[in-house]
Amino acid sequence: MRLLVRFMGFLFAAGTVVFLVGVGAVAGLIWHFSKDLPDYSQLQDYEPPVMTRVHAVDGSLLGEYAKERRLYLPIQAVPKLVINAFLAAEDKNFYEHGGIDYTGMARAGLVYIQNYGSNRRPQGASTITQQVAKNFLLTNEVSFARKIKEALLAMRIEKTYSKDKILELYLNEIYLGLGAYGIAAASLVYFDKSVNELTVAEASYLAALPKMPATLHPVRNRDRAIERRNYVIDRLQENGWIKQADADKARKEPLAVTNRSNGAHTFAGEYFAEEVRRDIFERYGEKKLYEGGLSVRTTLDPKIQVMARKTMVAGLVNYDEQQGYRGAMSKLDISGDWGVKLAEIKSLSDISPWRMAVVLETSDQSARIGFQPSRELGGAVSKQRETGLITLDGIKWARAATGPAKGRAATAVSQVLQPGDVIYADPLYKDGNPVEGQYRLRQIPKCRARWW
């Protein structure tokens, strides 16, 4: 019995020594890595680079200038849906833990063991606070030392700043792909909406992006992007932040991203916007222009601008057409998929409703044309092929500009157009109304004009 007591005493003493050594080692480790921690107090005065926006006289957007596309949004202006989506995706216990989520770490470890050997991506255990520490104060180096510093900084940040402040920093700093930093810019880039207009599906997609924005590209990796979006929707429902019916509806919603149009392009004000950019650069310098978040109101009136351009273009086109038709811009081999080949030819982007097309077949009465297909957000050529007809009414103006037949009107469409001709065309109008499916041959004027 005495031997057993002695043995138990020995075990207790040994355990105590091991415990004290362990505590000492941990304390020493903390002291070692705490010596050169970055100054986290700088987060209080954080001023991120914000893009400058130039507006027309009526408030319409003319242009945006930035090295990082970002609009800073106070946490009070972020909808609860968007906040919950990011918490569901990244850190559901954010408002409960003190910087490190031990429950989340244990859960991630359990999932890792369960999925070991399955090639599935390990579940992350970093909290939003840890991500703030890494993004603002540390590097992306993958090392044990960085993880320790990240954890230490996270605990200190939690003691210094409110949860809302930490979340505000995170939501405005994260990179979400396509050149967008922060949720406000990403909402505009992906969906051309403010954050207050986002649906459950849209907010969930943005919340899925922080860890792997390139992998979840909405066009190149659409299926993977939808799968991850739906994962976030499931977590929102599981946490009780959305109803079953809302979750079911969101999962069925297609991932439809929007290619934002340039206001200067819409109002034919590209040169005006460029002059404004140069003026800002000369007055305030490069840093203020691209990082200062300036909001510039100009004198450009979009309605007058469009009217002036329309009048000038009509005069140029009428004059040029009176000189005759000079022939196709170029020739294209239309065998196989003509759409892919036509998409490779650079077309003018500021002459809508004119569109580049290729002649597919001709007869005396008409020519069938195929329009240049659009490109998807990822750069791939759209699979949709749109065609139309140019009849005799669409080539009435196309008299020969040179040669023996100069000035003579065409009596057949095939005298003007041949298969493979690359041209421009726009809708044909009769009595002020467009004729469905029919188009008018167009020609880029050789003469030039400008107005001030």
UniProtKB/TrEMBL annotation:
Annotated catalysed reactions: [GlcNAc-(1->4)-Mur2Ac(oyl-L-Ala-gamma-D-Glu-L-Lys-D-Ala-D-Ala)](n)-di-trans,octa-cis-undecaprenyl diphosphate + beta-D-GlcNAc-(1->4)-Mur2Ac(oyl-L-Ala-gamma-D-Glu-L-Lys-D-Ala-D-Ala)-di-trans,octa-cis-undecaprenyl diphosphate = [GlcNAc-(1->4)-Mur2Ac(oyl-L-Ala-gamma-D-Glu-L-Lys-D-Ala-D-Ala)](n+1)-di-trans,octa-cis-undecaprenyl diphosphate + di-trans,octa-cis-undecaprenyl diphosphate + H(+)
EC number of the protein: 2.4.99.28
Enzyme class: transferase
Compartments, as annotated in UniProt: Membrane
Keyword Protease: yes
Domain Penicillin-binding protein OB-like intervals: 325-446
One of the GO BP terms on file: proteolysis
Pathway: Glycan biosynthesis; Cell wall biogenesis; peptidoglycan biosynthesis
Keyword Protease part of the UniProt annotation: yes
Domain (Glycosyl transferase family): residue spans on this chain: 59-236
Top-rank taxon: Bacteria
Transmembrane segments: 7-33
Gene Ontology CC, one term: outer membrane-bounded periplasmic space
Keyword vocabulary terms for this entry: Carboxypeptidase, Cell shape, Cell wall biogenesis/degradation, Glycosyltransferase, Hydrolase, Membrane, Multifunctional enzyme, Peptidoglycan synthesis, Protease, Transferase, Transmembrane, Transmembrane helix
InterPro entries per record: Beta-lactam/transpept-like, Glyco_trans_51, Glycosyltr_51/Transpeptidase, Lysozyme-like_dom_sf, NA-bd_OB-fold, PBP_transglycosylase, PCB_OB
Pfam families assigned to the protein according to its UniProt record, in alphabetical order: PCB_OB, Transgly
Coiled coil: none
UniProt-recorded Gene Ontology molecular function terms: carboxypeptidase activity; penicillin binding; peptidoglycan glycosyltransferase activity
Protein name stated in the entry: peptidoglycan glycosyltransferase
Species this protein is from: Bradyrhizobium diazoefficiens
